[in-house]
Structure formats: C-alpha cells, structure tokens
Amino acid sequence: MNALNKKYKLFIVISLVLLVVGMTIFGIFGFNQAIDFKKGYEVRVSIDNNVGNAKSVLEDATESYFDAKGIVSAEYAFQKMDDGKTLVYKFREKISATESDIETYVQNKLDTDVKNNGVAVGAGVVEVDAFYGEVLGNDYFEVGWLLLALGIGVVITYVYALIMEKLSGATATVGASLLASLLFVAVMGITRIPAYPFVGYGIALAAVLAAALSIATVGRCKEELKNSASAKLNTWQIADKVMKYEGKKYLFTVVAVLIAAVALVAFIVPYLIIAAGQMAIAGLCACFAAYFGAPLVWAAIKGSKKKKA
Amino acid sequence: MGKGKSITLLSILSVIVAFVLVMTFVRFPVGIKNYNSLLGAVELDYDLAGGTAYTLTLADDNEEEVEDINQVIDTLEYRLGELGYGAFSVKAIKSMDEGSVDYEIRIETKTTETLSSDIAVVAAYGELKFFGGTSTDSFTEILTDVKVVDNAKYKGEVTTGNYEIDIEFTKNGYDKLREAIADNSTYYLKITLGEKEDGTENVLFQDDIADTTAYFKNHVMALYSPSESTARQMALQMNSGGLAYKYDVDSGVEVSSPYGEDVATKCAVAIITLAVVIMAVMIIVYKGFGLITALSSLLFILGEGWLLIGVPGIVLNMGGVIGILAATVLNAIGMVVLAKRVKEEFVNSEKTVKAAVNKGFKAALVPTINLNVVSIIFALAIFSLTKGVVRCFAITFGIGAAVAAISTLVFTRMYSSLILPLAKDKEKFLGFKRESAKGVEVEEAE
Predict the structure, then answer these.
(1) Is CB count within 10 Å lower at the N or C end of chain B?
(2) Residue B330 to residue B321: CA distance in whole angstroms
(3) What is the reported pTM?
(4) Distance, in angstroms, between B81 CA and closest chain A CA?
C-alpha cells in the first residue's frame, strides 16, 4: 500500500507552500500593524465646556468634517476623554487635514448648533481646540517571553504525551503544535491581517489547540491499533480510519472557532474584527495541522518502528 | 436511579442553576442599592472599561534633547508592567505642524487608588549616580564607565518604618568601588537617584564606607527608605534604568476604552452568543445527549464566570475575553469527543443505552483528560513567563480548561444519570440508531 496517499501529499504541499510564501512575506514586511500601534496619526478635538450639551454636537461636527473630507468611519478608531469633552480619532495613514481647518469647521458648527433650551448659545461660548499629530507607540508584546513559554509548554507536553501516548504520539502532538504556530504566522503574513495587539494570543491559541486536538487524535490511533490487531491493518490504514472517526470533531471545532469569530465580528468594532480574524486563522491552522499532521507523523513513526520490530 | 428520585434531584438542581443564572446575569434593586450581577462584579482592565489618561510634556528645565523617543516609551512601559498594570497604552505624539519637535507622551491605564503616585514613579527622572571622596563635601562622580547595578530588589519592612532595597552590584562595579576605597582610610560614598518632587537631589545613601564589610554582603548593598512606596519605586527605577529626560505630568483625565464604547458588554454578549450557539448545535447534532452536554456547558459558563470573581487578583482584559472564548471552544471539543464515544458505543454494538453511556464515558476519560491537561500545561507556562494581557489570556484559558474537564466528565455524567431515567424511550431520546437497525430500514425501503 502506498504509505503517503493523496491527502497527505496534498497536506504536505499546502503546508510547504503556505510556509514558504507566508514566511517570505513575513520576513520582508513583518506583521501588519493595527490602527493605534507602532505608528499612526491622531486628531484630537476638545471643547472647554459643555454648555448646551456641546459635547454631543462636537462628535457629530468632527465626524461630519471627516465625511466632508471623504474619510469613512472604518478608517479610524475612536476614543473619548474627559467625559466626552475631548475626542480622539486614530488613523493608520496621514489624512489631508490641518489643525486650523478642523478647528474652524467644528467651531462654526458649535457656534450655530449648540443650543440651550432650543436657543442657540451663539459664537464664542464654547471654544474648540484641535490637534493633529503623528503617534509613535510600541506593541508591548513580549514576543521573547511568549515564545519561551510556548517552548516550555511544548517540552512539558512532549514529556506528558510520551508517558500517555508513547514516542509516536508525543512527536505527532508536538509536531502538529509547532506546525500550527508556524502556519499561523505564515497565514498572518499572507493575509496581512493587522497583528498587534492580538498576535500573541493567536500564536498561543494555534499551538495549544493543535496540541490538544492532536493528543486526542493520536490517542485514538493507539486505541484503534490495539483494537484492530486481528485485522492486521498497517499504521497508515489505521490513521485513515481514525481520520474518518475524528472528522466530525474537527468539523465541529472549526465551526465553533468560526462562531466565536463571528460573535466578535458581529459587533463591528475594528479591534474585535482583528481579534476575530486572528482567532479564526489560529483555529483553522490548528485543525489543519492536527487533523492531517498528527495521524501522518504517528503513522510514519509507528510504521517504521513496527517494520523494525 | 428511579424516576421519582431523578425528578426530585433534577428539580433541586434546576432551581439552584436558575438562581445562579439570575445572580450571574440579572441586575436588580435591593432596597436602596442595586445588585450588580456577576458581570458587574468582575474587575475590568483599562482596555475593556477605560481608565485614566496622563499626558507627559517635556519640562521647561529639561536639559537633554530627546534623542530616542522609543527608548522613553520602552522605559515607561517596562515600569508600568513592573508595577502590575496589565493593559495600558503608552504613546508619543507630535504635532504635524512644521517646526514641532517635541513629543508629548500619553499614558492610558486602569484607574487605581495609587495611579497618581504610580505615574509619578513611572515618569521619574534621573539615573542612579555614585559619588565618592575623602571628605563629605568633595564628591566627584565615580563608576561612570562601568555598569554598576545588576539588579535591585525590594525586600520589605525590616524594622518598623524601615523598608529595605537590596542593590546587587556587578562584579566590575564592586571591584572598581573597592579599588577607590582601598587607598583611603576614610571614604565617603553618596548614591543619588534623580530628583525629589521639590527639585532637590534625591540622596539614597551618604556615609563613610571605608569598611565595606559593614555595608556589603556578597556584592549586595542594602539601602533603606522610610516609606514602602518610595522603596518599591526606587527598586523599579534602578532596574529600568534612568529616564534621561524630565517630564511634567498633568493631573489626568478619564478616558474610554481604546476598543470603543460598551466593549465589555459586547464581549459578554459575544461569549454568551458563542455558548448558546454551541449548545444549540450540540442539541441538533446529538439530540438527547446533546441536551445533556448543553446543560453541562451551561454549568461550565457559570463555573468559569464565578471563578473569575472567586480567584483573587484577576483583572479581566481583552486577552482574558479571548481566553474565555477559547476555553468555551475547548469545552465544546470535549463534549463532542464524549458524545461521539457514547454514540459509537451504542451504534456499533448491542449494548443497552445505560451500558453504552457507561462505556462511552470510560472511553472518553483519557482523551478528555489529555485534551485539558495539555491546555493547562500551556496556560501555566504562559502564565508563569508573561505579563499583562497575554497573562490574562493564560489565566482565563487555564481556569476554563480545568472547568471544562470537570464539566465534561462530572457534570455531563451527573446530568445523564438524572435525565436518562426520565426518558420513556431512551434510544429515541438519544436519537442514536444502531448499524443493524439502519440495515433493516434500508432493506425495508428497498
């Protein structure tokens, strides 16, 4: 029987293509950044008092200024300060605006739109101050420590899996976990989904989920090997059989991860969409690596051991 | 178990679960106060609930020109992290106007009782400097060409009102100091760390140290401060290196979450939506046994939620939310493993429902334990080595994995023991069909 059947070959080819392309893009461009991380721009508009509930007009006036400039809300993140008397709009790219331009536009709106008991309060009662500047930040993502933690996690998992599922199972579990993490980074490179601030969870989630799914899958392989001793199936046939049994579990996992992602996306908050996208990628990478990779590694190692025996 | 006993126990359990559900999700008035529900009791970090923003601007009397603003950001972030702040934002902002040179720095983090003094520490200016000479007034700066301090640790209150900081000298630094002292019968050492709030020199130590044995123990020098916060701050400032520039800090203003408004509520809705949809899918796919796993998943959500307020020191941030979502998925995987095993045991054999369920639980024991133990291993590794938001992910995911194991192996077992005796036709209730029965149906159809 051909040990590496079509689906394993396809798995290897897809993995290699994703890793080579993704890692090359990642190597050249690094992770894509989100609004508000590393480098960006912000517009800050504030008022000195809230006569006639001026702060509600302030928000409308500033956003109508952006509208007039052709800047849509998806292009910025928004934050309130000082009980809404200061608004901060964050952009990834430079916008065609000047502080005085914003100030004049918003001041005019406030002078005419701010009303006390329906009566316009008039010019100069609420003073507007605008600021437009570039922002430098840091992701504060301790990549070194996280990778060390995942490394330690992988080593302890290997020892645990070695005790529970023997050498073939442990290697398959850890192999799938490492592959899932690398695939996650590669796919992030290809898709250019903004990385920070959630990339740490993405890598961790891919590694953990792949290890957890794999150890359950190789456990099933071991069990089937024991149950089918009389049928004299080779390890590849057993791996195929287990993949059929486990298909539903993986399908369910993919669905559950996608539901989690959709649940976050449903609220249309830019940052949560980034988190959702990464969660979906991490889950898919974990399922892909564990479903195809774990039985493949298990069958290869177990098969060669059996042959030697 | 008899039907009567099942109904009684199930009723009691349902009342308890309903009560806990109400306490978890419903807000209601109690007298003149309001009960704020579990969701209201969970402590939220800055990224979910907003906090306070402080703006740092270069002081008029700052002497050095800012060469590397990123280094300033790194130092400020390090100090915030060391003070225990999980989610925070440190940004340097410069006007786009031509001629604008200086960056102002905005720090946003969770509002705490000590935030104002913590920010003063975070922005504290000045490096650790050593001065030495043979008389008290002839100090010259020494040890300028070597790294002197390896590490500074806050040790706690050693005598009443005396808080110790241990400064571990590098071998080079210690040897250089010994060399300087060796030639003199008296040697005055002064150690300073930046300036006090009133602008005067912040002297940490000033004494004759001709006999170093009285002050040093294995390259470690103990310094004392009358205040705990000052001692902690000094240790932090020594470890993070000096902030080379002098900044003025404003009084701070309230700031909303950087992720938008009502983000905590939206996250809660996302978690509940995920759990409900998963429960619905389980019921659709696995019928009666799906209902059993769905009820157990409900206990999982409640357990995870109550542990968030039960375990001291958890401040929930976006990392924690992602951890809860991931743990919910993990719980669902465990449930699928179990349901599939029970179904396989029934479908592929002639066992009774009770025997198939028992065998299914037995077969799912090791895979479920493996699944959750591996998750807990990773969570512990991440928890012990990282800080801030990623650590919160590890906490909620780790707790979730532990609760998921209990939920799959204990709660599901409990519910199946209580619910299955109530079903008239257990096979129909579970919705499982034996392979042999399927064959008969096909034959009949033909």
Answers:
(1) C
(2) 14
(3) 0.85
(4) 10
